[in-house]
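RETRY 2/3 - previous attempt timed out on the joint model. Re-submitting the same 646-residue input unchanged.
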Amino acid sequence: MRIVITGGAGFLGRRLADRLLARGVLRGVDGVDAAIEQITLVDVVAPAPSPDSRIVPVVGDIADASLLARVVGPGTGSVFHLAAIVSGMAEADFELGMRINLDATRLLLDVCRQTGARPRVVFASSVAVYGGDLPEPVLDGTALNPQTSYGAQKAMAELLVADYTRKGFIDGRAVRLPTITVRPGKPNAAASSFASGIIREPLNGLDAICPVEPDARLWVLSPSTAIEGLITAHDMAADAFGFSRSVNLPGLSVSVGEMVAALERVAGPTVASRVRWERDPRIARMVAGWPGACDASRARAMGFPGDDTFDQIIRDYIAEHVP
Amino acid sequence: MRIVITGGAGFLGRRLADRLLARGVLRGVDGVDAAIEQITLVDVVAPAPSPDSRIVPVVGDIADASLLARVVGPGTGSVFHLAAIVSGMAEADFELGMRINLDATRLLLDVCRQTGARPRVVFASSVAVYGGDLPEPVLDGTALNPQTSYGAQKAMAELLVADYTRKGFIDGRAVRLPTITVRPGKPNAAASSFASGIIREPLNGLDAICPVEPDARLWVLSPSTAIEGLITAHDMAADAFGFSRSVNLPGLSVSVGEMVAALERVAGPTVASRVRWERDPRIARMVAGWPGACDASRARAMGFPGDDTFDQIIRDYIAEHVP
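RETRY 2/3 succeeded.
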C-alpha cells in the first residue's frame, strides 16, 4: 500500500502521515486492509525530516503535471489531497487560487485516472463552499453558494471528484472540513486563522487579536478529529456515500465569545484576557458568509467522529503543545 | 452596443440573434438601453447567412483563446454564452465536454475580464446540474448534485460565473434552462433530443422513438420563452439576483405520456400514433436523474416568463414550422 499526501509538509498533512504510520494499515482499492509501505509527502516546502523510512518527501509544485506523474503511479492505492491556497490568499491572488485549488486538483485526478488503478482519493474540501442565504443548520442538501474564491474553487473541485468517481476514473471522497482549531504554530493567511490564534497565543503568553464579533458563530473541529475524519472517509465502503461523494464532517457550533469563555474555564481569566477585540471588516465579512452550524446527521450515521466540547479541544491542545 | 453570441449558429443562438435584431436595443453595462450595432455569432460551423449587416459570423473553436480575444473586446457590452457540448456527447467524450463546457467557458470569462469593461454575460446552464435524491419540486436552494458530466461541467461553469461576478470581473447571470422543446430540425446527441422528436417527427409524418417510459417527467420550456428568458436575465438589474447569480427558469412539468396526449389533442390520433415506445436504458437513466419539476417562484417573482400549457407549445411549433 503506497500513499500520496499533497500538502504533506503542512500541519494536517504531516499529522495525517504520522497517524497513518502509527496505524500501519489502510484500506486498499480491493477493500482489504493492507500494510502501509510508503507515504509520499508532496509539498512546495520540505517536510520536517522523519526517522521513518516509509516517508518519502517530494518538494515541488503540485500544479506541475510531470511532478504529479512522478509521484502517482499504478502502485498508488490512496491519495489524500490536502494542498490548497488558503481562503485569504485565494481571495487576494485569484490566479494563484485557481491554479492550485482548481487546476492542480484536476491534474491530480487526471494522473490518478491515468494509472488505471482507480485509487481512493480523499479530498479536503471546506464549509466555505456554502454561503449566501443559509438555513440554520446547513444541510447536506443545501446548495453550494460560495461567497469567496476559495469556496468556489473547493466547490468546483468537489464536482470534479464526484464526476471522476461516477465515471470510474477514481474512487473519490470529499470531506468538508469545518474550521480546524486549535492549530499549533504561526498564524497563516486563512481568514479563519484567528480561530486558532485566540486560543494558542494567549496560552503562549501572547496577546491575540480577534477580528470578528463575539457572537460570530463558527463550525469547528479539532485537528485530531479532522485527521480521523479523513481516514474514516478513506476507509469507508463506496456505497455508503449514496448519491453524493461530499460529506459535512461533524463539527461543533460555537460562537467566538463561547470559545474565549471556554479558554477562561480551562486556562483562567488572565489567559483569556489576552484576547483583544479589533474588528477587521474584510475577515468579518468572509467569516460571516460561512455556516455557523451544519446538520451532521448524515456524517454521524456514516460513522464519522466528532468532538465532545470546545473545552476538551483546548485541553487536548494544551496536553500536546503547551509545555 | 456590441453583442457576442457563442453557439451563434445553433438553433437557440440564431433565434436569439433574430430576436435581438427585431428588438433593436439591449441594456448596456451602464444600465441604459442602447441600440444594437453588431451581433457576432461565434460557432464551429457557419451560421445561415443573414441579410442584416449587424450580424458578423465568426467560425472557429471557442476553446481557442486567440479567437475569443479577437471577438470580445472593450466594446463588447454583452455576451450570451450558449455554446456547449450536449449531454449525450459530453458523456461519451469526457475530454471534449471538459474542453468546451468548462475550459472554453473559463477562457471566455477571462477574455471578458481582460476587456476591463465588465460586460454582462448570460450563461446558458441547465437543470442537469441537479441530480441524485431530489426534492419534488427542486428548489433554487437545492444542492447541485449532477449525475452526468454535462451537468457537472455546467455546475462548475455556474460557479465560475458567480465568482467572476462577485470579484467584479464580469456581470454574470446563469439561467438553468429546462429541456427546450419543440426544437425544429434534426435529432442531436442530447439525451433530451427525443423530447422534441416525439412531437416534431409525427407532425412531419415520420415515426419517432421515445426512449423513456410514459411516466417519465420532464421540466420543459418552449424555444421562444427560453429566448425571452435569456434576454430577461440579461436586462435585469444586478441586485435582483441577491446572493445567487443562477436562476431556474419557469418551466412546465409534464410527463412524456402527457406530451403525447397533448399531441393527440392538438394534431389528432393518427399523428400521435407515430410515437413508438422503445426504452433506451442509457437515455432513460440520464433523464431519470434530471428534475421533473422545479419551484420557479423566485424566477417568476423576478419577472421571468413561462409557458402556459404544452398544448400551446405544440400549437406555436405548428404555426411556425409545419407547412
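Residues 187 and 193 of chain B are 6 Å apart (CA to CA). Closing ticket.
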